Amino acid sequence: MSTLYLLHKPYRMLSQFTDSQGRATLAEVIRAPGVYAAGRLDFDSEGLLLLSDDGSLIHRIAHPKHKQPKTYWVQLEGHITDEAIRALKAGITLKDGPTLPAKARRIAPPAIAEREPPIDPKRHPLTSWLELTISEGRNRQVRRMTAHVGFPTLRLVRAAIGPWQLGDLAPGEWRKETLHAPRPDNARQPRSMSKNGVSKNGVSKSASPKNPASKKARAAKAAPKRSTSTRGPKK
Question: Do 38 and 74 form a contact (C-beta atoms < 8 A)?
Fold first, then answer.
């Protein structure tokens, strides 16, 4: 049994618990002993960050060989064209080599909290939103990809990692799930029969965790099974 924390990392916060330069860290929004981030999210990016106190679980989530797909909502400078979307889908060549084909589609502005500080409409009067799913983890890859096709990224929000989704978490808010990790031979383990519970700002309500990804996805094979979920208040 392992514990996984799903955190909505705010804008301009490091994906770590300490910083010698006085920048905002995860210690300001989550206090759980012995937990570490499974991967990272840039200081100037927002959205879903997974944390756990289980090293093997962190490895299964973060290691590139498991290819957990990551979905981002991207606010772009200008109105992205169909040609640019086709290029992202097919794969483009960056300085560190070609990217794998991605899933990309134009979307309406997602229902998420306004960034603090917000995008300045006077400096950026024309913007559009893109949903982009990639299975790689290169440094600042999404920003480089959109700039390559002519539409620089203004705001970047990670919406999902494999089967785990940001959902309705507000910036600085987190949700805790109890998981049953698969055995080395991938044999199934029984689910806990405990009831799911969610609390937000001290108010309890029922909730069910989202289903795992399709069996066709390699990521789903590495993803542990979930049993319970609790939510922590925004700090």
Answer: no
Q: What is the pLDDT of residues 150-197, one digit of tens each?
A: 999 999 999 999 999 999 999 999 999 998 755 444 433 334 333 333
44 is catalytic: no
Which tokens sit at 176?
């805790």
pTM of the model: 0.78
Query: Looking at 42, 53, 82, 96, which residue is catalytic?
Result: 42
Query: Dihedral angle at the C-alpha atoms of 179, 190, 206, 222, nearest 10 degrees?
Result: 40
Are 179 and 3 within 8 A, CB to CB? yes
